[in-house]
Each structure stands twice: as structure tokens, then as C-alpha cells.
Amino acid sequence: MTTHPAARALRATPEGLLWEPSERWVRGVRGDVTVVDSRHPVLVWEPRLPVPQ
Fold it and tell me: Would you call 7 helix, strand, or coil by DSSP?
């Protein structure tokens, strides 16, 4: 995936959710515990909500 908007790989589910893979490494920590750690996250947007450019 690239950061150029024309090359975005947005896809849709039958329910209308838009999603795309991301190249970012995502890690979430609560207190001293890592609760999410992914090098292949998927970004998801609900129907009727704007998708960031």
C-alpha cells in the first residue's frame, strides 16, 4: 500500500463496511499490558461515516 490517495485499496463488505490494509505497526497498551500488537492491521469505517483522505 502507498500513501498516494489514488492507489488506496479500499474494499467493502456486503454490510457496507469499508476497509483497507495498513502498513503501519499498531500497538496498544493499557497500564503495563500490551493488549494489541499488529504489523498487519486493517482499518475499518462504518457505513455513512467519512473516510479520511
Answer: helix
Beta bridge partner(s), residue 39: none
Q: Which residues contact 37 (CB under 8 A, 6 or more apart)?
A: 26, 27, 28
Q: What grid cell was written down for 15?
A: 454490510
Can you name the residues that pair with 30 across neighbouring β-strands? 33
Averaged pLDDT for residues 8-23: 91
Amino acid at 23: E
**By percentage, how much of the chain surpasses pLDDT 90?**
64
- Name the residue type at position 48: R
d(CA 15, CA 17) in angstroms, rounded, equals: 6
Cα(27)–Cα(24) distance, integer angstroms: 10
